[in-house]
Amino acid sequence: MALISVEGLATGYESRLLKDDISFTVEEGSYLCIVGENGSGKTTLMKTLLNLIEPVSGQIRMNGLTHKEIGYLPQQTDVQRDFPASVKEIVLSGCQGRCGMRPFYSRAEKKLAADNMERMGITELKDKCYRELSGGQQQRVLLARALCAAKKVLLLDEPVTGLDPRAAMEMYEVISGLNREGMTIIMISHDIEAALKYATHILHMGSNIFFGTREEYVNSDTGRFFLREGGVQA
Predict the structure, then answer these.
(1) Strands 31-36 and 57-62, sheet pairing
(2) Is the dihedral of CA 3, 69, 137, 108 positive or negative?
(3) In contact, 223 and 193? CB cutoff 8 Å
(4) Following CA atoms 90, 93, 95, 97 in sequence, which dihedral angle do they give, to the nearest 10 degrees?
(5) Coil, helix or strand at residue 218
(6) Is 228 helix (H, G, I), strand (E, B) or coil?
(7) Residues of 180-201 as b/e, b for ≥16 C-beta within 10 angstroms?
(8) pLDDT tens, N- to C-terminus, the chain (234 residues)
(9) Domain limits, the chain
(10) Number of helices and strands (H, E) in the chain?
(11) N- to C-terminal Cα distance for the chain?
(12) What is the dihedral of CA 125, 127, 128, 130, to 10 degrees?
């Protein structure tokens, strides 16, 4: 079943059109990687899906899906990396959308945060200050936070940026594991090798827009050109 259907979408901000005629679907349980050149509008598209930016034109249909069922892991800024809060506090903050008008977290929400810290292997870090953690540990904290919000779909914007190769590989494996458990993944990535390894579908943003399965992308003119330019073997 298609959770998200996008038809003829045009995206932009501050009256500047970035990309138009974007069409794709996100099936339940799929793993969509959004790839393409820098400045091609990948992050703007993701923010448009999240309703953080208004579409210029076109349609986004959430088929039985609400924004409260979507978790989001944006790119980190230097200020956020230095945030002076505990791991537990940051992960719990992912439950805010579940609280409604309540000024406190319920027992169920605290358990959800604890479960997601366990899931990400960071339970022993729960009382540590976030800014004292390594880059890989910080990303696991933010992923646990996003999982507290996510019920069906997880959106990730360059989740391994700034990580060393080992930490990046571990993060990709964690995300792949979530997908195997049934979480639908939409991930922006500059790492085409990882995209080809893990994704079920590829959305290529560039002068030409391509959407299809991994296999269709590898065999397309767009995919072959992009892979050849990046020196990647499919």
Answers:
(1) unpaired
(2) negative
(3) no
(4) -150
(5) helix
(6) helix
(7) eeebbbbbbbebbebbbebbbb
(8) 789 999 999 998 876 788 889 999 999 999 999 998 888 889 999 999 999 999 999 999 998 888 888 999 998 766 577 788 999 999 999 988 776 677 788 999 999 999 999 999 999 999 999 999 998 999 999 999 999 989 899 999 999 988 889 989 999 999 999 999 999 999 999 888 888 999 999 999 988 899 999 999 999 999 888 887 665 655
(9) 77-150
(10) 10, 9
(11) 28
(12) 90
**What pTM, to 2 d.p., does this model score?**
0.90
Q: Which residues of 133-155 are buried (b: 16+ CB within 10 A; e: fewer)?
A: bebbbbbbbbbbbbbbbbebbbb
Two tokens at 9? 């979408």
> Tell me, what amino acid is at 219?
N
The token duo for 178 is: 């979530």
Reported as type and span, the H/E element at residue 184 is strand 184-188
